Amino acid sequence: MRLAATVSRVGPSILLTATSESIAFLVGSLTPMPAVQIFSLYAFMAVFIDFLLQITCFVSVLAIDARRQDADRPDLVCCLPMNVSNNSTEQKSKGVLQQMFTNVLTPIVLGKSLVRAIIFAIFIILTCLSLSTIHRIPIGLDQKLSMPKDSYVL
């Protein structure tokens, strides 16, 4: 019921947005420039396939997940029923992943340990590595793709 109400609210806006973006990219594919034409066709197909997946597969997966939640099944091993013994109702309503993040990972990361320093050091190292290799990325576009094949500029 909640899923049907949600889809009925957001479905028309998803349809309108996907339609307008698809039409815009299709119009963009009419240009004689090969690079823009190829990009527009790929973008059109990406938006169209994304729309189809949102309306079909994503809604189906949400419906299956809603059934799992209503049956009080855990989120990791959804085939097994949830066996929570004498915990509060708040703990019972939390899934396995949420309990793991709340009880294990959050205290480790935010606790008074070296974990924060290690995470920060890894972030700094990855940033420095990224900055050291950024000059190897080729700049620009192949100029033959930017003009039509029969252009006098080529």
From TrEMBL:
GO terms for biological process: cholesterol homeostasis; intestinal cholesterol absorption; sterol transport. It comes from Rotaria socialis. GO terms for cellular component: plasma membrane. Pfam families: Sterol-sensing (PF12349). GO terms for molecular function: cholesterol binding. Residues 1-64 form the SSD domain. The chain crosses the membrane at residues 12-33, 39-64, 117-137. Keywords: Membrane, Transmembrane, Transmembrane helix. This is SSD domain-containing protein.
